[in-house]
Amino acid sequence: MSYTIYSDEYFMNEALKEANYAFEADEVPIGAVIVMKNKVIARAHNLTEKLNDVTAHAEMQAFTAAANYLGAKYLQEATLYVTVEPCIMCAGAAYWSQIQRVVIGTSDNKRGYSSLSENILHPKTEVVKGVLETECRALMQTFFQMKRENN
Amino acid sequence: MSYTIYSDEYFMNEALKEANYAFEADEVPIGAVIVMKNKVIARAHNLTEKLNDVTAHAEMQAFTAAANYLGAKYLQEATLYVTVEPCIMCAGAAYWSQIQRVVIGTSDNKRGYSSLSENILHPKTEVVKGVLETECRALMQTFFQMKRENN
User: Fold this and answer.
1) Which of A96, A116, A121 is the best substitution to test chain B (most B C-beta atoms within 10 A)?
2) Residue A78 Cα, gap to closest chain B Cα (Å)
3) Over its length of 151 residues, how does chain A's per-residue pLDDT go in tens digits?
4) Nearest-CA neighbor of A61 among A42, A37, A79?
5) Among residues A9, A27, A49, A59, which one is catalytic?
6) Could you please report the per-residue DSSP string of A1-12?
7) Are strands B31-36 and B78-84 parallel, antiparallel or unpaired?
C-alpha cells in the first residue's frame, strides 16, 4: 500500500518495514524511525535476542543513531515513529532526548509507558496514537501466535 | 579509605571510582558497577556529553556490558551499584534485566525513579539506599558548584 508522502502513515510504514525485519529475525516485531524535516535520520528494530541485551529496543537504538547523525544530544525538532507504544525505559529515554513528537502505531496495555499514572514523557512532547494501528498490531499478534504454537 | 572486602561499601567505592572518571571528563559524575558472585562483571560511567547520547548513562552501559560478559540478557543473580539513584529510563532497563539488587549511593529527588508514585523496578528487585551517600552526594555537589561558578 502507498501512503501520502511525508504523512504520519508514510513514516509509520517505514517503521513497519523495520518491524518486519525484526519479525524475520525472530525478534519481537517492533520497529522505529526518527524523522527530521521529512528526512529519516535513524531507523532501527528490536534486537534484544540477537544482541542479548534488554536495552536493545528499537527506540533506544534509534535515539542513539539519530544523535550520532546530528552530532547533538537533543531531538527537539524530530519525530519518533514507533510501531508499538514505548515501554518505560524508552519513554524515559524520549524524555531525555526532548523529542518533539512521538507517533505510535498500536498501544501496549501491559508494558507501555502510559500504563503509569504520571506522564513520563517531556511535557513539550506531542503524542499521536493509532497510526497504522491495525497493521502494527497484526504483526505483533501473528508473532506471538506463532510463538505459542511452536511451544 | 578501605572497606571490608565484598561489602556493599566496597563495591560502591568501585562505582565511585567510575564516577570520578566521569568528573574528570567533565561529565555529570555518576558511576556504576555490576557484581555477580563477588566479581565486578561490568563498570561504566556517564558519557552523555562525550558520546552526544542521552542514553549513555552509567547504568545503561553497565547493563549492556554485563549482558555481553554473561552472554545472557538477564541479571537475576547480579547487583547494580550506582552512585546516584537511577532515572526512569535506567530503572526501566533494570526492570527488563530482572536484576536481583540495586544498591544506590545518594538519592535524586528530581529525576530519580522513586519520584514516581508506582514502583517501576521488577517486583523481585531488592533496593538498598544510602551506601557511601556522603561521598556520592559530595561529588555531585562539587561538580554542579563548579559548573555554576564557571557560567
Assistant:
1) A96
2) 15
3) 789 999 999 999 999 999 999 999 999 999 999 999 999 999 999 999 999 999 999 999 999 999 999 999 999 999 999 999 999 999 999 999 999 999 999 999 999 999 999 999 999 999 999 999 999 999 999 999 999 998 7
4) A42
5) A59
6) ----TTSHHHHH
7) antiparallel
